[in-house]
Amino acid sequence: MRTLTVELGARSYPIHIGSALLGDVELYRPHLRGPQVMIVTNETVAPLYLGPVKQALGSHQVREVILPDGEVYKTLEVWSRIFDALLAERFARDCTLIALGGGVIGDMTGFAAACYQRGVDFIQVPTTLLAQVDSSVGGKTGLNHPAGKNMIGAFHQPRAVIADTDTLNTLPERELSSGLAEVLKYGFIRDAAFLDWLESHLSKLRSRDPEALAYAIWRSCEIKSQLVAEDERESGSRALLNLGHTFGHAIETGVGYGEWLHGEAVGAGICLAAALSARLGWLTESEVERTHRLIAGAGLPTRRPPQLAPERMLELMAVDKKVLAGHLRLVLLKRLGEAVVTSDFDHDALAHVLA
Amino acid sequence: MRTLTVELGARSYPIHIGSALLGDVELYRPHLRGPQVMIVTNETVAPLYLGPVKQALGSHQVREVILPDGEVYKTLEVWSRIFDALLAERFARDCTLIALGGGVIGDMTGFAAACYQRGVDFIQVPTTLLAQVDSSVGGKTGLNHPAGKNMIGAFHQPRAVIADTDTLNTLPERELSSGLAEVLKYGFIRDAAFLDWLESHLSKLRSRDPEALAYAIWRSCEIKSQLVAEDERESGSRALLNLGHTFGHAIETGVGYGEWLHGEAVGAGICLAAALSARLGWLTESEVERTHRLIAGAGLPTRRPPQLAPERMLELMAVDKKVLAGHLRLVLLKRLGEAVVTSDFDHDALAHVLA
């Protein structure tokens, strides 16, 4: 087991990465303030992993909420069921919520923990590669609104993250690829050497080689936790984590939540960001081609959905929350391994790239 | 105009108290980061005060959301309309929400500001005495759940509070009395001299003497802001502010939200707390009688609703969020002017007081 600490002063927390962690009570125990534990999970994950987690926590008062599975359910209405369960069981302020599932479960559970009685503890047990390398680190929680993704939410740090690599064996291939989009992202924005390593290990990662996966998760979490520790409130370097995401969110909203997976949209978004970076003279054509090869090699799309017109993409990007006072800022690439936040591109260049 | 600063480091904010403040653009301007302003108000307040506030902010992009009036509407469903409006107008992260109304509007607007894009600025313009002395100070925001009041919420500090005493001229008498419950509370928990002053000025306050009201608001805010500054996260002295509230919340829930006003329930709750304090030997019978005289003199009930059985009260108090890990803690009075948080009473004493 590898353990990484996200340094946030009094709210620092450990990320444990490895095999057979899910059922290890010792990883939970130091982080449970009171006797009451509410596991929030979904209909897909519950039959696979709810049992072992409940068994590990057998000496506590453990209850569960099982939500429907999918990004389309990341709504206020579904979210409110967590409060119904907490209040039906009279959970007190010293209770702990456990998010057992992917990014949607993590976001909804974390946001419920942020708001229940104005804030209780939670532990993340991410069961997808995407959640292990992204959603479970950084304290972002939230819900979607019909008019935009993650528009309602809070910053709320978990007490611990338990990333059990065994859970990836039950992950569908499309979801594994979706997670690889975020893994590749860390290489693109911060670490050219990691990008090289990923390039030579893509087939191992896709065949779920445990050693390769553990290293990729660990390095991804390390890069993200460094960025988050530098800048917890997203005023500076943390914004780099949005590489591909402004494009990606527009794609997800445009085709309807759940049609494209988050990582698929991010993969295509990274390719669009690379193309725009090339138009600014920052990337060469061969670097753009390498970007496409890496994204395609992870099993991800490299272009926007053909049914989504460029005009509609532009419109959707304008409501993305990265728009600061009406001015569109994007994360682009100075080179492969170094991202910057910029609004230093003209509308025509953006429109051209989308077309 | 009197101005009080709530000292919270980087999140310190001013409370302006006085006449004719509502339409003074200079009080808003220093706190508006971007051009977009969303005024959240209700159907009762909008016809009275929305016009002047909009006029003062004429140079900004001002929009409004008008919600139905009343505690029964402090729900997730009604709350979500604020997001609908913000997103329909494409409000960015540097927008400002203005809460124009009583405590319900303040709580819902503040919580929406806490959650919109994971946190935007808001300004409180409280138009009831209760909101001016209570809800607008301390950063507590939230919503009710059918199973309990304020169970869903966040801590989120306003950028400024503008308490215009002129708005109290349109306040119904029952609501004025409800506000006086909280004013009296500050005397009971922290300041015997203020309690003496209130005793001799109750009739002036009820006839809306502007001088008396301004002093009462100012001193109430000062006591509350001291307690909040001491203890922003409610681990210690801030809990004293809950005098009468655990009883009061049980009353409000038991009779149905909106039947009793918040301050009416708190008034009766203070009398119940005094009675329990007397059973512990802390208050004399004549102090209990004085408490009843003060509460009744403010136009407030001194007893629980007769239709609410003691057993049901106890049950409802057990889900109140002040219950820590199943153990009921109450704010009681060591003397008139000094409150303590304690669980040092037996169940029989509590049951006797409720009967």
UniProtKB/TrEMBL annotation, chains A, B:
Short name of any one Pfam family annotated for the protein: DHQS_C
- The entry marks the following residues as binding Zn(2+), namely 182, 245, 262
* Cofactor binding note of this UniProt entry: Binds 1 divalent metal cation per subunit. Can use either Co(2+) or Zn(2+).
Co-factor(s): NAD(+); Co(2+); Zn(2+)
UniProt-listed GO biological process terms: amino acid biosynthetic process; aromatic amino acid family biosynthetic process; chorismate biosynthetic process
Q: Where is the 3-dehydroquinate synthase C-terminal domain?
A: 179-323
List, for all copies, the residue spans of the domain called 3-dehydroquinate synthase N-terminal: 65-177
Which pathway does the UniProt entry assign to this protein? Metabolic intermediate biosynthesis; chorismate biosynthesis; chorismate from D-erythrose 4-phosphate and phosphoenolpyruvate: step 2/7
Protein name, UniProt field: 3-dehydroquinate synthase
Organism, by scientific name, is Thermochromatium tepidum ATCC 43061
